[in-house]
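[SOLVED] Need 3D model of a two-part complex

Original post:
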Amino acid sequence: MKDHYDIAVIGAGPAGMSAASLAAAHGACVVLLDEQMGPGGQIYRDISRQKAADLTILGSDYYRGKVLVDRLAASAVEHVKGASIWQVSAELEIGLTVNGVAHLITAKHIIIATGAQERPFPVAGWTLPGVMNAGAAQILLKSSGIVLPDPIFVGSGPLLYLIAYQYLRAGIKIKAVLDTTPRSNFSASLRPLVASFRQIGQLWKGIGWLRELRRSGTDFVRAVEDVRIIGTDAVTGVEYKKKGTWQQLGTDTVLLHQGVVPNINLAMAAGCVHHWSEMQLCWNAAVDDLGHSSVDGISIAGDGVSIMGADGAETLGQLAAIGALQKLCKLDPHTCLRLAEPLLDIQSRRAPFRRFVDTLYRPAAQFLHPADETTVVCRCEEVTAGEIREAVRLGCKGPNQLKSFTRAGMGPCQGRFCGLTVSTMIANELNLPVSEVGAIRVRAPVKPLELGQLADLCSLE
Amino acid sequence: MARLARNTVSKVMIHFAGEPIEAQAGDSVAAALLSAGYGVFRTTPVSGAARGPLCMMGVCFDCLVQIDGLGNQQACMREVREGMRIQPQDSAFDAVAAISLGDTL
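Solution:
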């Protein structure tokens, strides 16, 4: 690793890989920094290590990642694996730890491509061992070929159905799928569905997964109104409400999912402006067409901006690379425009289908701001919904003040799994838009850094 | 936990709470522990509640364990290495106690 690069790309998912490869192809000196031990991000995770037989389980979309990984391998990009990035500053300095040693490097331009994480799903009992995100189960499947026995899938959204379908393909019996998609979403999504007729192939794919699940005889419960996970030291079952009646199912494994949201911590800590998206119910980074953020020299690409999926992320990565190359005078404005135009065109054609998915799988209100007062909202500091409402009643106006009231958002995850719920709950209680309530302020280091590592960094200077 | 057949994968021996576990090379510590049937990785500093992994991608910090005497390690982000000694992290990690225990960890 050098001390300085033309372009530093953070995150080796579809956006980061395509950004880094394209930038290097135009002569920039590029470093790609990633936390994982192999390229792919979460969507193409461990793609380099898969054997061909897994194709039937994981599906052909997953193998699109191979093209991106091969292109990256053939490029001049320096790929730093296992890098924990704890700081990006507005002065374009990156703080990272690799193999237990901290480094500070600089770049003329930084592209943040930190992707998405699963949306918090605060229901009673979601902190019990045995409750995982559905995406976590998929990571176990992709990385280690591990499958969790007899799971109950709870939630809503294409990724939930895809993972359940992959479990079926792997020969695993699914105890049940409890679908929390509100019935009213179906009528609301008709208009965006009509508008997205050009991407109808995507829809067939999803219908195919659902048809397979139904054919398999899996217990598929629609329009689930509420969920409680039960157990004392570990999960023993799930209670769910349908048509006003509570029913119970036993299991050791509950897999939760209600969509994904941008992973914003690094960009927010760098000072990049974010806006609340009422469509996606999460924070979206403010960027222009070529990914430039509000901080000069920092671009953001892929699902870290707003959720567009893997194909969209790949295109946004290329656009961010074009923007960075133009900024560094490695591309003249004319070439820049010629390269960007077709990509912007593809991206605009994807937008209607995304609106359809966002509308159809918009999470139900009770899973965004839990009514049950005992439900834990901040998992790290174990702050409940009731405690947060009480703080608001006592005059707390926003998520940063809530830290002083309750410590919510002050644990090791730094608000990654409570930030959205906290802002949404306060807004709901005060009857204000979430944009007015604001987000938990994120500060570096955004990943843990040992004092010794920090001290060694100082002694080098 | 079940495992699907993989390519030729070499075995790695690790220890959790003193018990030997046979993991596969390339596994994260979290994957290896889950595969061996361990669902509880730690207890919380606030209430002492049992916790295991939630996200498996370095975001939630619920899979914190001690690895070779070092506390607050994200089990989902560390790859298994031969001879690794892993302990559940009960409550907050006590660095002073860990140092005074020295080689026994």
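Edit: Chain A touches chain B through 48 residues (CB under 8 Å).
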